[in-house]
Amino acid sequence: MMSGFLAYGFVQRGLLAGSLVAAACALIGVFLVLKRLSLIGDGMSHVCLTGVAVALLTSSNPVYMSVPVVVLSSLGIMKITQKFKIYGDAAIGIVSAAGLSVGLLITAFAGGFNTDLLGYLFGSILTVSWDEVLLCGILLAAVLGGLRFFYRDLTSACFDEPFARTRGVPVRIVNTALVAVTSVAVVLAFKVVGIFLISAMLIIPPVSALLVSHTFKQVLVCAACFGVASVWLGVYLSFLFNIPSGATIILVNLLVLAGCYIYAKVGESDAR
Fold first, then answer.
1. Who's near 220: CB < 8 A, 6+ residues apart?
2. Domain CATH code at residue 119
3. Residue 22: helix, strand or coil by DSSP?
4. Domain count of the chain?
5. pLDDT one-digit tens code per residue, 221-251
6. CA angle, corner 89, sides to 84 and 94, nearest 5?
7. What is the largest CA-CA distance in the chain?
8. Please, are residues 226 and 241 in contact by the beta-carbon 8 Å criterion?
9. What's the domain range around 99?
10. How much of the chain exceeds pLDDT 70, in percent?
């Protein structure tokens, strides 16, 4: 059954793209969760609707159209936070509401919801092209490169920003880069699980990893592994039972989270 499942080219592309973007989202999500910015994925996913709606209205590529829209919106969140001195979650809420409203208005002008738009809202991993697979690979390479060369700056800015500033870490640049990379990950992930479920890929694998890991590097490795495994099992189950792939991937992620929680609780009981 598995060999027959993997024989299809569209399945291979979907699994490869899903694995790459799931690993990238999980690694990015670890820092977002620890910095209490995990909801930025949800906010940026709403802004994605604007990019997708404009792309469908102008018959352009939704991914290429959404990247600049979402990146500029994420930088807007940082600017609002700094200029008006409000908390990040409030800035995310403001930009999220604006993006969703504009997206819905453009959708109305474009003639309402159609099959293409619904695919982006709820995910269509099996329609991924090789160009999108390449973009997902570039994203993961950029994330791994950032971890390799800026690991200390990232961890310092993540755990203790005031101390990081005293060490000369450019905290503002680190935060801006993190948010910008998150925006690109959000755009590439909407083909995998859909606009409405993107934030789950950024949040659930890191939280699961934090429950069962003992070091920060273990958290990163476990989060990436959980994300990739959930994509493979989710796509296989969706193919087997003819159910939506995006929702199935997230449900598998939730089952992994439940398993990690039980494992952590059992470990606490044994320690006592």
1. 27, 30, 147, 209
2. 1.10.3470.10
3. helix
4. 1
5. 999 999 999 999 998 888 888 888 888 888 9
6. 65
7. 62
8. no
9. 2-264
10. 88
